[in-house]
Design a protein that fits this description.
The complex is a heterodimer of chains A (110) and B (118).
Chain A: E1 9-12, E2 18-23, E3 35-40, E4 47-50, E5 64-69, E6 72-77, E7 86-93, E8 99-101, E9 105-109
Parallel strand pairs in A: 1-9
Antiparallel strand pairs in A: 2-6, 3-4, 3-7, 5-6, 7-8, 7-9
Chain B: E1 3-7, E2 10-12, E3 18-25, E4 33-39, E5 45-51, E6 58-60, E7 68-73, E8 78-83, E9 92-99, E10 105-108, E11 112-116
Parallel strand pairs in B: 2-11
Antiparallel strand pairs in B: 1-3, 3-8, 4-5, 4-9, 5-6, 7-8, 9-10, 9-11
Classes of the chains: A mainly beta (110), B mainly beta (118).
């Protein structure tokens, strides 16, 4: 099963906003709003940042927001901070009753 | 505090077997689906399998179906992954994760490293 499609890398300066896209298919994003986003710092376990397309778990900064249009989901980080530098992964539930991750996006804060 | 802790990783020869464990605490274990996810060195996340709270619903990724088996013991608040016929490409950090209502992985362990090499 092919991964969801994410850009390999994005970058931004402190204080700026960036958006990471995640493209799926009719079998995942086109059917469900079960899109999640994860942040993973080097050598650490992933951390849930967004679920159900745009809901933030308790404790996650409101600088992180999510959205979906058609078969593409997006994670936007506003007011970039040095600590946001990490890898970001999207995921979705699929009609095959399986789950899938995106290939991951490396965010560099310049 | 909600927590999951993996154990059981190590070095195994190609064709060998290994059983991973995940100990859960801080929540009613039987109320939640649980999942295994892995990450090969320098690579992205790969979902492997999930199991329902009762253990009656199970699904696998194509890459491991027939070789890996997920199970749970709710009396022991524990999740397991039996891995057979291991290959070099199974080398990865294996994570246990709790699954939320709308399929987010909302609590992750620190991972356990499995290395398959002769």
């Amino acid at each position: 099963q092919s991964a969801l499609t994410q850009p390999a890398s994005v970058s931004g300066s402190p204080g700026q906003s960036i958006t990471i896209s995640c493209t799926g298919t009719s079998s995942d994003f086109g059917t469900y709003n079960y899109v999640s986003w994860y942040q993973q710092h080097l050598g650490k376990a992933p951390k849930l940042m967004i679920y159900s397309v745009g809901t933030r778990p308790s404790g996650v900064s409101n600088r992180f927001s999510g959205s979906k249009s058609g078969n593409t989901a997006s994670l936007t980080i506003s007011g970039l901070q040095a600590e946001d530098e990490a890898d970001y992964y999207c995921s979705s539930y699929r009609t095959s009753d399986t789950l899938i991750f995106g290939g991951g996006t490396r965010l560099t804060v310049l | 505090q909600v927590q999951v802790v993996e154990s059981g990783g190590g070095l195994v020869k190609p064709g060998g077997s290994l059983r991973l464990s995940c100990a859960a605490s801080g929540f009613t274990f039987s109320d939640y689906y649980m999942s295994w996810i892995r990450q090969a060195p320098g690579k992205g996340l790969e979902w492997l399998s999930y199991i329902s709270g009762s253990g009656t619903t199970i699904n696998y990724a194509v890459s491991v179906e027939g070789r890996f088996s997920i199970s749970r013991d709710n009396a022991k608040n524990s999740l397991y992954l039996q891995m057979n016929s291991l290959r070099a490409e199974d080398t990865a950090v294996y994570y246990c994760a709790r699954v939320g209502d709308t399929w987010p992985f909302d609590c992750w362990g620190q991972g356990t490293l499995v290395a398959v090499s002769s």
